[in-house]
Amino acid sequence: xxxxxxxxxxxxxxxxxxxxxxxxxxxxxxxxxxxxxxxxxxxxxxxxxxxxxxxxxxxxxxxxxxx
Length: 67
What we know:
Blueprint: E1 8-12, E2 16-20, H1 24-33, E3 39-41, E4 44-51, H2 56-66
């Protein structure tokens, strides 16, 4: 899903994924406006860390915002 949205997965665990986006600051703002909180990094503005959704509803919500 993150790759289809233009991201490149660069790390992660069973709880989160770290992805590089060309417009990470813009995506961060768009996700935040939709109530989806991701971590950004002051020293790496191209990276965002996504906590993995807990259920199908949360996955669908993330998918809608990433489109």
